[in-house]
Amino acid sequence: MKLFSVFIKWFAAIIIFLFSMAPMVPVKKASAASEPSEISLSVNPSPYLFSLSNLKPGDWSTRKIVVKNEGKQDFQYHMSVKKNSGSDKFYNVLDVKISSQGETLYSGPLKSFKLANPRLLENGQEETFVITVQFPMSAGNEYQKLRTEAVFSFQAADLVPPASDQDQVGGVNTASNANAQSGLPKTGEESPVMIVFTGILLMTMGFGLFFYKKNGLPKLGG
Questions:
Q1: CB atoms < 10 A from the CB of 194, how many?
Q2: N or C: which end of the chain has fewer CB within 10 A?
Q3: What does DSSP assign to residue 24?
Q4: Domain presence at residue 100
Q5: Number of structural domains, the chain?
Q6: Residue 30: pLDDT band by 50, 70, 90 thresholds?
Q7: Domain of residue 134, residue span
Q8: What is d(CA 203, CA 219) in angstroms, rounded to the nearest whole number?
Q9: Is the full-model pTM beyond 0.90?
C-alpha cells in the first residue's frame, strides 16, 4: 500500500510539473506570411491618351511613356490598350509600333496589341516606351473626318519565382514548397510539450502496469 501511495504522488507531481512548464516551452505557431512590400507603379504622362483626328493615309503620331517603379520591391507589369472614345472603324484600322531601348516589342494592328511577356521593373528603376500610331497608306477616303482616342494602361503584379525541377510534374507547377514559403507549420510538426508529455505518460503507465503485475491492486480500507 505504501508503494502504491508513492506511485500516485509521483504521477501527480509529474502532471503538475508538465502543466507548469508548458508556457515556458516555445511552440511553433501558425502565422501569416509577412506583409508583402509595397508595389507602386507610376506612368508619366498619366492617363496616357492618343487623340487622333484629321489624319491622312501615311500620317503617324509618336509619343513617349515613362513607367517607373516607386515601390519597395521589384515587380513585373503588363501593358494594354483600348479605345477610350470615338470611331471604332477608325480605331480598328490603325497600326502601332512599340519599342523600348531600341528593341521593337510589338508592330501590328492597334486593336490586336498584346505584349508577349510581362516586363520586369526593379525597385527605383524606370522604362521608357516609344509608341508610334500610324494611319496606313492603304486606307481609303471613308475614314476622313473620323476621330478616335486610345488609352494605354499598365498593371503591376508580384514577381513569380521560377519553379525548380523538383516542383514540376509533367510540366505543371506543384505546391510542394507552399508550406516553406508561407511560414505555416508543416504537416507532422508537433508541439514539444505534447511530445514530452506523451513520453512521460507512457513511461508512467508502463511503471503502473509493472506495479500491478507485481503486487496487484491494493485493497481499499486496509
A1: 13
A2: C
A3: G
A4: yes
A5: 1
A6: very low
A7: 41-160
A8: 25
A9: no
